[in-house]
Amino acid sequence: YTLAVDDYLKANLEVLSRVWKKFADPRTKIMTLGDIITFVQNTKIPVNEKAITAAFSLSKMSVIDETSQTPKNSYDKMQFVEFLEFLPRLAWVSYQGTPWANQALHLLLDSIMDNIAATVSASKVEVEDLPEYYEEDEDQDEI
What we know:
- The structure is a single chain.
- This protein has helices spanning 3-11, 13-23, 33-43, 49-58, 80-94, 105-118, 133-136, and strands at residues 31-32, 77-78.
- The chain is mostly helical.
- Strands 1-2 form a two-stranded antiparallel sheet.
- The chain starts with a helix and ends in a 7-residue tail after the last helix.
């Protein structure tokens, strides 16, 4: 997750909110793993269920009280903020084993966003002219 990904998600938040409302349970406002698999299948992004499950699991926040199984307090249910974490992970797993695998994460996310937006008959918001500090992100690990 990088600043560029954050800016990209913020720019497309309205479209992503519409996607969430379409696939999440309207009563509980959560998505199950099954809902996520259905969503990804609707996007026609070529990724298998095992990779979707891995991305789903890695996107979950820690559950504080594992004995309490409230609708939003479970490892098999996802909240909107976790969905936003899931999308870059989906982009990353969808390109593993391809020549694009080493591209910047925001570019991978951008490449699948048309498919995601199409599920609600929308268009992605083009994010151009990303600030120069994104190129410096790679050097941050050395500090």
